[in-house]
Amino acid sequence: MNFSMKSTKIGILSIFVLIITFSALIIIQQTFGKDLEEAKRENSINIAEGSILKNDEFFANDFSQQKVLFLVGSSHVGHINVTEVNKIIAKNDPITIYNIAKASDTPKERLSQLEEIIKTKPKMVFYGISYRDFSFPSDLVLVPIFPDPKEIISCTISLKIDEIVPSNPQFLTREIINEFLSNQTKNNFEQEQKYFVMKNTPFIPYQKNPIIATDNILKENVHFAPTWNDQNITYQNICALDSIISQLHSSGIKIILFTSPLHKYYLESLSDSQKNQFSQLQKEITTKHKITIYDFEEKYNGLNIWDDSSHISNHKNVTIFNEEIAKMIIKEYEE
Fold it and tell me: Cα separation of 86 and 70, whole Å?
């Protein structure tokens, strides 16, 4: 009897502790999480030749007199030199390309800003995707892309709930701590580094003296996060991409997807399951939405053009990726 009562008390105490802990995490999410995400989206770090624009500063511009196309995605897309792309395209048609990629961007993050993009009424959107956008678990089966309306509703509800209750509290806590620590060293870092803001790329700073990494550097610093294990993050980002495509189509805006280039060392670090999941996702997107996906993933494996294993270098001698992005845009625009 005493043992039973003791077990009951322990059980009640454990539940009480969990409730307090989870409530605290929700408070952290509400108090700091949104500010953290807003800081990511609206970073205004002063750098050498200008400043990174805030989201509302960029979209407050009047684009009505331009034929506007957007490049969208993470820093993988941010490494496209849109100044060079515009030079190539200007020979064919007076359209203007803006690279609105953002570091650490995901479909879920981009979905929260989609209304601003739609209001701008771009002619087309080119969205670069890769494994890091979905954080595919290394040994789990891909969730389908929700062709069933009931599943779309379920997914939308899941995204809304995640804004209130953090789906990955451990990751959120780590992000907040890292953000705090990074702010302590930010001033020293900015003094040591030299950056500039490229025209028509409002959210990504570029190094003034970019390098082309040697093979040894690439091998030693594989830019990949092998600890992805939260299937809910994968689920939400697949759902968010599905919603982005649907909303753009509903608004009469053509969207084209392309996979971002990856070095062979990065690709070798992926599991067969992750590769299969990404491949299956692309097939389901193509089938459901009838859109084109250009594949750059393995296209530059053997070339000496890399900044790290998941980013093409911005070095002036690296032109091939910019040229092929321009060809893709011209082809789709002329169709």
Answer: 12
Flag whether pLDDT at 70 surpasses 60: yes
List the one residue out of 329, 308, 272 whose CA is nearest residue 79: 308
Q: Amino acid identity, residue 225?
A: A
How do residues 75-101 score in pLDDT, each as one tens digit? 999 999 999 999 998 876 778 999 999
Q: Mind listing the pLDDT tens digit for each residue in 118-161?
A: 999 999 999 999 999 999 988 876 666 554 555 556 666 666 55
Distance CA 287, CA 291 (A): 8
CB-based contact 194:209 (threshold 8 Å): yes
Q: What is the dihedral of CA 254, 283, 103, 125, to 10 degrees?
A: -10
CATH 3.40.50.1110 assigned to 31-165+175-334: yes
Task: Give the containing element (helix H, strand E) for 158.
Answer: helix 149-164
Angle of helix 149-164 relative to helix 231-250, nearest 10 degrees, comes to 120
Domain boundaries along the sequence of the chain: 31-165+175-334
DSSP 168-205: -HHHHHHHHHHHHHHHHHHHHHHHH--EEEPTT-TT-E
DSSP labels, 34-101 = HHHHHHHHT---EETTEEPPPHHHHHTS--TTSEEEEEESSHHHHTS-HHHHHHHHHTT--EEEEE--
β-partners of residue 290 are none
